[in-house]
Structures are given as C-alpha cells and as structure tokens.
C-alpha cells in the first residue's frame, strides 16, 4: 500500500526540476525536449448505500477510494518547426469496499476487500502549426488484482485558418482481461475455487470513435459538439455479483456479451461581463441494453480577482433501467440475462459542490513555478439512497 | 409514437445547433481575451478527473465528456 501521496513527492521533484530551467524566449522555438508542465491530481472518494450488487441488490455499498496521478508534459520543435508534445502519466488508486468482502465472507481477506490499481499511460502528438493539423498516438496500461487492461489510441485534429473552428477525430481500443471470480457458494471446481492465480480469465474489448467539432460563436461564446460511439465485447457481466430469483435460488449475474453505446454531448461556455463564466454541458446517452440517460451540468466560475475564482456547480442525471435489471428476488428463472446491480436501475442523481482556483501570475506562495492550485468538493446523491462525497486537488507547475 | 417524438427532439436540437453555428462571427486572435481564459476551456478540468471516473462507475451512461466509454478498469 502506498502511504506517501504522489502529490507530496511530485511537488518536491517539480520544485527541483523547475528551479533549474530558464524562462523560454517566446520567439525562440526550442529543438531540445523541455519540460512544460507537471500536474498532480489527488482525489478522496467515499460512498455509502444499501443496494450492493455483490449481495444481490441488498446490503452495504460502503466504499472509499484514494487516487493520485502525476503527469509530465514535455515538448520540442523539429527541423520542420513542427511541435512535438509528449506526456507521461502514472496513477495509483487504492480502495476498500465492504461489499466486495462478501464475495467470500469466510476468508479473512477476500479477493477484492481492498485493492490497488496502477495505471501508467503515455501520449505523443505532432502539431503542424502552419497547416493547423495535429496527429497523435497514445498507449495505456492498467493493473489491479482481477483486471488487466492495455489501451491504444490515435487522434487527428484540424484547425481552421482563422482558428475559430476545430475538428477532432479519435480512435481508441482497450484490450482487457478479467479474472472470473464467482461468489464462494457458486464455485464448482474447474478452477473456480479461487485460490491464488487459479481463476480462469476472460477477455473484454472496447472500441470507441470520438468525433468532435468546436466552434467560436462570438467573442464570448464557444461550443463543442461531441459524439463517441462505443462497442464492447467479451465478458461484460461481473461474475461475483449475485442475483436472487423469485424461487429463492441464486446465480451469478449474466449479461449479453455485446454492448453498443451512443453518447452525444454538447458543451457551451459563455463569458458574462468580466467576472462571470457559465460552463454548461448536456449529454444524451443510449445503448442496446435499453439504458437511456440525460445529463445536465452547469458551473458558474466567479472571478473574485483575475487570479482567484470560486466555481459552484450542479449536475443532474436521469437514467432509464437496463432491460435486464430487477431488484432482489424479482427475477424469473426463465430469463436469459439478469442483474440486480443498481448502477443499471432507473434513478435520478444530483451532484453539487464548489471549486476554488488560485493562479497568481507570480506563482503560488512565492514559488514562481507553482502555476496554480485547484480544490474541489462535491456531494452526490441518488434517488435510490446511494450517497457519496468527493474531494479533489490539482496542483500545476510550469 | 415515442420514436417519432425522439426524432422530433433530435431534429430540433440539430436545427438549433446549425442555426447557432450559422450565426458565428469571425473572432480574431487579439479579440479572444475572454475565449482564451482558463475557465472557458471546452473540456472538463483536470481536477474533475476522479469525478468523471466515479460517475462512470455509478451510472450506466458514460462517454462524450472527456472520460472513458469502457475498458481500462473492471467497473464499466
């Protein structure tokens, strides 16, 4: 378990690194790779509720997650004056989950009572500023006890000559592998006993295309339209989640092996006067499991000074249940697909809170390279009783 | 009937967007002091990274918001 947050280590490293760099001349385009930016993001999340899917839609959903990422951004110009941007990110999440402990309540420490996820990633892009074109590639890896993921992606961006319109296309694929873990009473030999690495594995692949157009409408308004169709195949059910039927029998969750998702989003940001900004987002989502959802997100940053802002926000979300969802003891034995996971049920949710952003021109607390600090708190509640709190911190060094 | 209503909503939304985009002004670089403000970025903030993650775990919908639409962890 990692006890020293990345944030603290990273702050120290970035102070050492940046204290040795010289300010760049704006007209000079460096052909040497230089460190542009270091970002640290930390988050603490806590939730509670009474609809755990591991115990068939009843029981505690208490969970805490502590997440940290560090990102390094570097750049250089090549002989053709094209800009190369490189980024490296490493993340570590540590969580504890009361419901996961019920997969096998007889063990002292079950498979997923607590776990740590480690996820490095990298991205490289080449920007031709004259032609307004950027191409990029990215790769990622993620590892936790029962789940391994390899991600690959590519992107293309074209900016109009007047820099008022931008089109971006992305292709992304994840090749994931699950360890198939059943609830203890449903393990029936053949490697399902669950000792050490004896779990069988199953693949899950995800392919997505992202198409977006951003447009400057006038001096104070800009919008972004985004569509991101996704196709998933493989093991999409979580096998350690129980489903209790009307006749009293219990089985592991079973869901179709294919899922098509179509989310379409619209962002619009508007600057009012000199102190207020309205950031808005709407998303419509539909998939072939019968889920339909609407998301509305509003945030209003208020500039107390040009370098200090407070941002209250509110998000409303509403979804229609998946065709395969039913609560505890409500599924019929004749059904092919079944789940009692309340994340797939019908509900509304509200998420609200505020953020504080500090970005003084001469750096924070007398440190020239400490560019900005953002602190954000949010409270989330769902109409079926689940509630959570999240506190996030972002530190940027330039 | 419901499909007809959904189609009407989608067509209305597309029309609103097309009309809005059609009324665009050409804004020169020196006129973009408001548009270039950090608060005006057309993406979610870095500090929202873990909010986007937990929402994709706790809700069936994901994507089109800068977060993942699937893969990468055993939760979506």
Give a quick precis of the structure.
The complex is a heterodimer of chains A (398) and B (76). Chain A has 398 residues and is mostly beta strands. Chain A contains one helix and 20 strands.
Q: Determine the fraction of residues in helical runs of chain B and give it as a percent range.
A: 40-55%
Helix content of chain A: under 10%
How many strands, what sense, and barrel or not for the largest sheet of chain A?
18 strands, antiparallel
What integer value in Å does the Rg of chain B equal?
Answer: 18 Å
Oligomer: heterodimer
What's the total number of strands of chain B?
0
Describe the SSE topology.
The complex is a heterodimer of chains A (398) and B (76).
Chain A: H1 6-18, E1 34-48, E2 63-77, E3 83-97, E4 114-128, E5 133-144, E6 147-159, E7 165-179, E8 201-216, E9 221-227, E10 230-234, E11 242-244, E12 250-252, E13 258-272, E14 276-287, E15 292-299, E16 302-305, E17 308-320, E18 347-358, E19 370-382, E20 387-397
Antiparallel strand pairs in A: 1-2, 1-20, 2-3, 3-4, 4-5, 5-6, 6-7, 7-8, 8-9, 8-10, 9-13, 10-13, 11-12, 13-14, 14-15, 15-17, 16-17, 17-18, 18-19, 19-20
Chain B: H1 2-22, H2 49-58
How does this model look, in words?
The complex is a heterodimer of chains A (398) and B (76). Chain A has 398 residues and is mostly beta strands. Chain A has 1 helix and 20 strands. Chain A has one domain (6-18, 33-397): monomeric porin ompg (Porin). In chain A, the strands form 2 sheets. Chain A has an 18-stranded antiparallel β-sheet that branches. In chain A, strands 11-12 form a two-stranded antiparallel sheet. Chain B has 76 residues and is an all-alpha fold. Helices cover 41% and strands 0% of the residues of chain B. Chain B has helices spanning 2-22, 49-58. The two termini of chain B are 32 Å apart. At the A-B interface, strand 1, strand 2, strand 5, strand 6 and strand 7 of A face helix 1 and helix 2 of B.
